Amino acid sequence: MSQCGRRRLPCSWLAHMYILRICMFKELLLRNTNKPRTQESNNAMSASLFNNIELLPPDALFGIKQRYGQDQRTTKVDLGIGAYRDNNGKPWVLPSVKAAEKLIHSDESYNHEYLGITGLPSLTSNAAKIIFGTQSAALQEDRVISVQSLSGTGALHIAAKFFSKFYPDKLVYLSKPTWANHTAIFENQGLKTTTYPYWANETKSLDLDGFLRAIQSAPEGSVFVLHSCAHNPTGLDPTNDQWAQIVDAIAAKNHVALFDTAYQGFATGDLDKDAYAVRLGVEKLSTVSPVFVCQSFAKNAGMYGERVGCFHLALTKQAQNKTIKPAVTSQLAKIIRSEVSNPPAYGAKIVAKLLETPELTEQWHKDMVTMSSRITTMRHALRDHLVKLATPGNWDHIVHQCGMFSFTGLTPHMVKRLEETHAVYLVASGRASIAGLNQGNVEYVAKAIDEVVRFYATEAKL
Amino acid sequence: MLRTRPFNWGLLRPYFTSSLCKVPRAPPDKVLGLSEHFKKDKNIHKIDLTVGIYKDAWGKVTTFPSVAKAQKLIDSHLELNKNLSYLPITGSKEFQENVMNFLFKESCPQFGPFYLAHDRISFVQTLSGTGALAVAAKFLALFISKDIWIPDPSWANHRNIFQNNGFENIHRYSYYKDGQIDIDGWIKQLKTLAHNQKKENDKQLHCIILHACCHNPTGLDPTKEQWKEIIDTIYELKMVPIVDMAYQGLESGDMLKDAYLMRLCLDVDRYPNWSNGVFLCQSFAKNMGLYGERVGSLSVITPATADDENLNPLQRGNSLQQNIDSQLKQIVRGMYSSPPGYGSRVVNVVLSNTKLKHQWFKDVEFMAQRLHYVRKEMFERLRWPDLINFAQQHGMFYYTRFNPRQVEVLKNKFSVYLTGDGRLSLSGVNDSNIDYLCEALDAVSKMSEIA
């Protein structure tokens, strides 16, 4: 919102604004005495197509961030946005990232020149290795296309734009529930989306049967958007065995799998473990359909605001790849050229440095363990406090879920009361970012949850 | 229940696989593709004059002194740098304040503050100029118009951006004829359009791209008087101007002076109300040397509304502007969620630190002077008069008027790389390669005379 003029004014801005506006206006009217300005602009006004533009609600997550920022209460907790916080509740720049930054700045050839349209090759090729695995058949057979993207959203957007350009009739299946932005990313490109069952609320577990049925009944060749690990918002992932069933079902119907992989290494602290689903999918679908992978370094390298990610496309095994690969790459480049020209350099250079320097890679692995184990500790602390308080309900799902989030099962009413009464902020769906918890606030949060749960339990009885 | 069957791959029709075969190959990007060719060229005299990146007198891409100092400040002040958190969807508040202050108070001191005071500017931090144009295109295509007029010739990516972001009709207006700007042809075309629309009672709005200064690729800009005539016409025809300002400061060396087209469009006396807005797409790629960091902005100057007549200071903000803000946010959220941080932190430091800002102004002046010097030195050798037509020839590019065959010869025989339209990036010229270059240019230009 443009309130710059206003923000520069002292606290009595109302009065100043008033005077300012009057002055400006008088000046304007005086200058335009010869012109029937008001009338003319009124006429123009009615003709303006701008008047048809409606006000959209603010983005839920960024809205929470804003309200939290304005909250004056001394004790407040932000469990909204998915960004890692250290045990003091502060953003944490990974030691490996700090070291990479130093290396880059001390390099004499460092400059701000444009990257190529498809991004920094040392980033894209190394990023492909960590998600597909160095032993990946797809990589060895040279059938993976990788381009740099603006983090996960940018990668998903490229996928959406690619579908809408060449396969506009494909139906896109999203998990229910899913990351709030998924729907918008695909629908903004004119694609139709629908959902597949994922979370069984009664059991707080995976609705595998519903999931598989949806895959079976979907029109042949549909797109299935899968969270490769640390499902957002539920924090609940299929087991390895369940993944096999899911991928087999997708293969049987010639569907296309799109893996959104935003938390590799963040869920368990182990890059390979967290890439299990993607690697399984690429292997099992290698003669069925290409696999789309949207990879983000926002969380696992703490690159949030630097927008680093990659879009990968693993083609199937087939003779035509020689012509398909350059054709698809050229189309991806055209899409990127039309929206950003070329992707941002700074974050890409840092992540490339992390991935190509063995000592930094090793440190990065340790950093991911630091983050994921702190989150696990917090899950246990929260659950244990709730158990100690004898808060009505079962809270074991909090420790069974993984990644940044927990789907607490709290209702929108409870969430609202948490914010209003206790200054604890989470998304209306009941998704809590566990990274926002620390030794200093976890007990406070548990007590707040206890209060709202009891409050609505009593109310329900009345 | 699920039918699990063993994997007899042979039975499975590779449904999607074969349909990927139908994806046609897109032509390589004209500019960035050439750089790849250049890298492979083995000629020791090779000169890359394709991409619009400023190089110093030694042919090096250097970081501006002001930017280098800003970087040092960022590195040494941990509190500036340790936060790699997400920026808000449309960029940080600081960036917005600093850039709007620079654009609308310093660059447009007479009328900019009027628009600011009335909350009539929607602002988005974007991925440089391309990002600004892409967001503007998506917004316009959703609500205002799917018709765009692009100068002929223009930056090759303009067409691509609008075509790929929802525009249906791409029109070209005559800009250049026989080495001169074709103002008459341009205005005539617009008036014909208006005439035909009137005849057919066609109310469709049209957008038009205007290069704010240092036209790419011709390097030729209308004079201030000609601009008045052009903008008068555009205003009269109720077209939606999209001002693409990628080279502010590179024309005269004076940052503020170069914003003249924006000042003209915002002149409330002359143009009381742009009923469908003015779109300003601005970039720090060239004038701050932040190319690859992708920093720029889109400002939408919103039309006057009834709110403006209402002097009640208690009314919070301008509702039209807020609606537009919300739509722009939605567009960005679906494209990339939030803009990259690093480049905007550098811009923030440069713009908010008086000393650094002063240094930046000097850096830009120095750069413009060097480009000026290159033109003069080339003139000394080639005696082509338009090289020193300083009233109209501006910026980083010189338009050779070579045909595609000449450009090919230049590349294949001399290893001198221009873009296919004959655009030459002056910043790649320096004392060590100018003699070789001018000999090559001379030879190729004579080739056409024979042909």
UniProtKB/TrEMBL annotation, chain A:
Coiled coil: none annotated. CDD domains: AAT_like. It holds the Pfam family Aminotran_1_2. It catalyses: L-aspartate + 2-oxoglutarate = oxaloacetate + L-glutamate. Its EC number is 2.6.1.1. Keywords: Aminotransferase, Pyridoxal phosphate, Signal, Transferase. It is an enzyme of class 2 (transferase). InterPro entries: Aminotransferase_I/II_large (IPR004839), Asp_trans (IPR000796), NHTrfase_class1_PyrdxlP-BS (IPR004838), PyrdxlP-dep_Trfase (IPR015424), PyrdxlP-dep_Trfase_major (IPR015421), PyrdxlP-dep_Trfase_small (IPR015422). Residues 75-449 form the Aminotransferase class I/classII large domain. Residues 1-25 form the signal peptide. Belongs to the class-I pyridoxal-phosphate-dependent aminotransferase family. In eukaryotes there are cytoplasmic, mitochondrial and chloroplastic isozymes. This is Aspartate aminotransferase. The gene is U6500L00930.
Automatic annotation (TrEMBL), chain B:
The keyword Transferase applies. Its EC number is 2.6.1.1. Keywords: Aminotransferase, Pyridoxal phosphate, Transferase. InterPro entries: Aminotransferase_I/II_large, Asp_trans, NHTrfase_class1_PyrdxlP-BS, PyrdxlP-dep_Trfase, PyrdxlP-dep_Trfase_major, PyrdxlP-dep_Trfase_small. It is an enzyme of class 2 (transferase). Its cofactor is pyridoxal 5'-phosphate. Belongs to the class-I pyridoxal-phosphate-dependent aminotransferase family. Homodimer. In eukaryotes there are cytoplasmic, mitochondrial and chloroplastic isozymes. This is Aspartate aminotransferase. The lineage of its organism: Eukaryota, Fungi, Dikarya, Ascomycota, Saccharomycotina.
